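Minutes, methods subgroup
Present: GH (chair), OT, SY

1. OT presented the first of two proteins processed in the latest run. Sequence and structure tokens recorded below as shown on screen.
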Amino acid sequence: MEGEEQKSQVMDLTPEQNEGVLKEILKEGEREEGPLQGDRVSVHYIGILAEDGSKFDSSRESGERFEFTLGKGEVIKGWDLGVGSMKKGEIARLTCKSDYAYGEVGNPPKIPSNATLIFEIELFEWHGEDLSSKKDGGIIRRILVAGEGYLTPNDGAIVHVRLSGRVNGTVFDEREVKFPLGEGTEYNIPEGLERGLERFKKGEKSTIKLSPKYAFGSAGNVSIGVPPGAYLDYEIELCSFEKAKESWEMDQEEKIEHAKICKERGSAFFKEEKYRLAVKQYKKVLDFLQYDNGLTDEKKAESRSTLLAGYLNLAMTYLKLHDNPRARDHATKALEMDNNNVKAYFRRGQAFLNMGEAEYAEKDFQICLDLDQNNKAAKQQLQRCALQIKEDKRKEKQLYGGMFDKFARQDRAREEAEANRWKDVMAGDLGEWGKAEEKKDSDKCELSQLVNIDGVHML
């Protein structure tokens, strides 16, 4: 090992070549590929103070490998540079000056200020960054080329991307495309890829692996050559993007105008039966119109009217998606704004009926009819409610009737068993009483024959 160390080359890893991080390979890695920025890496390490050679930390002593995300500032600069240059299985010695370690502050009590540190690090494995909200491994990103700046696209931003998609090693999609973030399905862009792009910076180029849940699901996308339940691999570059204006950047009147645009876009998606896209647009209506401070009475009325439409349209869309609890909740929100709204009562009634709450549904449909006596749809739904309630009562009667019959049979069986038991007991006792007189004389005789011990009759 000593001979190998003498021959090993010392490399300066700093971009400025100022010898701030020097690397010496103690054991070569297994292959050319190494971890990328954003990868989660697993290492063992020993930390030594260069000044006196004393050890201040060691993962090997704890027996647990240390993990961190490369290039995210979770560790000192020297580590991001050093581990980023390593290969699988490599063992390296990093000498990090204080500017690339803990600087003037140090890390008391073990590491003094302005300390140069030496680390012996072994790199075991790494995997891409998991961008899924539940961290289920469904969206894995590996950064090939880091982006610039710190801005990322927001919902509604117009993104310009260059992509290549593969399934089972075969390219199925290769193109440049612009689209509004959040409406990717209109452009055959899967949900997981859009979620990944929300974390991209301008100029970033990355690979993204998608599980079926975040790709095209169990149905696949036959039109572009993706079979059902397929895992997908993308290489994608964010060429540029134009951020959508955030609500906090708008005044109240601007928010009303944007909300009206979102309502119209949502309605267009609804007519095309693209219900999930419609939900996204209607939700934006609610976000834009949370407040109406500083508006004239006329503008307040316009804001409330658009907001009410947002709640009603969400209730209707959730009914189409068979999400009845959300449909009920949004219809209720609409009624809080307008307690005489026929559409809100009708849609909440539909949600209740779909949820098996026929009696609640009946009340809502009856109010619809009270408010609009010519509402044929409400009359039909009331008939459905009546039939459902009747059927529910029949089943309830059958259920409880059967239970009561069962209990009655059990009671009768217990009573008969108890009667039979007492009959047997009584019969046995009477037989003994019948013999009592016959045994009377013999009992007297037996008593007279008792032995006298110490003058006491033992009975």
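2. SY then presented the second protein from the same run.
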Amino acid sequence: MKPSKNVQTFLGFDNEYETSEIVVFGSPFDGTTSFRPGTRFAPAIMRNESYGLETYSPYLDKDLEDVAIFDAGDLDFPFGNPKKVLDMIHSFTKDIVEDGKIPVMIGGEHLVTLPAVEAVYEKYKDLYILHFDAHTDLREDYMGEKFSHATVIKRIWDFLGDGKIYQFGIRSGEKKEFEWSKEHTKLTKFNCEGLQEAVKKIGQAPVYITIDLDILDPSIFPGTGTIEPGGISFKEMMEVIKTIMPLNIVGADVVELSPHYDNSGVSTAVACKIIRELVLAISKK
């Protein structure tokens, strides 16, 4: 399923597919959300609200007008069939990667990260993951279900193994998840300290970035399904994005905006700005 032209694009993401460096697409799925659903509406609403932004980033001194980005729109998922949804994301991401482009996915709940990472991993076997989140997402299962937004990083670990997953901002999870992480992932609680050291250690190995927006404190980002007080600030998130710029980023996603839980629109505006900064940071131009 090759990407086709999208009618309503995210601000500045209107380049042609063939000449684009980065391909953005939406995965509007929240079929395993365990608390408050609504992330399926995020990609479409973010596109509309993105026009409140400028194309220029004063944080990075880069402009979307100078970067070739293609917005493929949202995948059209069936209802009631999570396995097919995951297969569709995998297939779509694989096509992008095989065409030598960088996939950037807008979720959707965090489980959508799994098939995207699997597709990227098929090309880049020495792949690393940088995971920014409030939650560990390291459960073996959630209420008996192995495939859930609460298990997504554990499922990724299943094929990546030890030493390849760095987790930042984590402040919620079962005790046994935190205990398990001590031997299997590199987990930083509450903040993003140690990110610079991780970037240096990874060097130019391929990296996939996954940002669960609930890493942000709910005082600035209440529009998410599982709110966890004590998160990082927007300024800290901008420092994260500047820090990861030297990396060889081969795929990324931003997930877990539930826009209808913040009627002010602030959460959506924050999410849009993070998308703008992330794609500019990823671009090699």
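Chair's summary of item 2: The beta strands are 22-27, 56-57, 62-63, 69-74, 102-107, 128-132, 165-170, 186-189, 206-212, 248-255.
Next meeting: continue with the remaining queue.
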